[in-house]
Amino acid sequence: MIVSAAFQLFAEHGFDNVTVAAIAERAEVGRTTFFRYFGDKQQVLFADESAETDRMCAHIREKAPRPLGGDLAAAVAAIRESASAARPHIALSPGHSAVLARLLRESTELRSRYLLTRQERALRLAGALTEVGTPENVAVLAAHAAMACELTAMRLAETPDAFPGRLEEAYALMGAPGAVAAS
Predict the structure, then answer these.
(1) pLDDT tens track for 56-84
(2) What sign results for the dihedral spanned by CA atoms 44, 2, 150, 50?
(3) Are 40 and 52 in contact (CB under 8 A)?
(4) CA proximity to 168, closest of 144, 177, 159
(5) Are the C-beta atoms of 63 and 71 separated by less than 8 Å?
(6) Where are the domains of the chain?
(7) Are 61 and 131 within 8 A, CB to CB?
(8) Domain at 1-45, CATH homologous superfamily
(9) Which of 4, 132, 9 is nearest to 78 (CA)?
(10) Closest-CA residue to 80 (of 169, 177, 180, 161)
(11) Which of 5, 51, 153, 163 has the fewest CB atoms within 10 Å, counting from its CB?
């Protein structure tokens, strides 16, 4: 309820013009309840980030070939597969994704917070890759390469619907296995 209320308000008024009190009121909860779940209103935007990363890491641990070894392309492919496996569980609706994309374009502060979430994701994914036998240098590079592809797609996608195609383009530019070059 809190996340939905926050995204509605952010869509209507922008991020900076929405207070925690307004979010709590729209969600019909008290401020104390809001702060029981979220440290600040920025956290609402990235509410499912940790759970999504958990699912991606679990997928790598369970499904990646063992030992994955030092093949960078195979490590990047394992991350791509984990993202695809986690995608059906993502809590953000397409409407919320569109609001988030707009807010990230408009706010340097929110982009900074988003980049921190992506950095944490890359570190955790690198850890999962090392657990399945990828040397640390390859695991770290693969995780950051995947993050770079995602950030490139986000920057170039004009709409949230364009994101998957732009992501494929980014992977194709890297020569990642399974990537389809844009026409």
Answers:
(1) 999 999 999 888 889 999 999 999 999 98
(2) positive
(3) no
(4) 177
(5) no
(6) 1-45, 47-174
(7) yes
(8) Homeodomain-like (1.10.10.60)
(9) 132
(10) 177
(11) 51
